[in-house]
Amino acid sequence: MVSLIFVSGMAVGALTMHLAERHWVNTERAALSAAEKEMAVQHFSRELDLNAEQAKAIEDVLDEFIMQQANLMAEFDHTRASGHDRILRILNEDQQKRLKKVVSELSKKRRD
What we know:
By secondary structure, this protein is mostly helical. It has helices at 2-24, 34-48, 52-90, 93-111. The longest helix has 39 residues, at 52-90.
């Protein structure tokens, strides 16, 4: 019985966090903005006395890093949304409405 309560609590907590992030938190931010990337390259160039070829190579690595992170975030979002949809299919209409209310209340508390 204790295990069932524990697992149920974990599932509700995970679903609640997912809904809050999906609807109220902006998760679509690149690892580095273009300006941050440029600042990083300039900083490395100054501090490490890089030549133009080295600076370009570091910029290429940062571009690759940013792209990989964006792909991972997209995959993570897809997986999370898929899990959310599967959980919603388990709940009846009344439970779905109650869950939305709980998530809304939690979101309101986070903003206050």
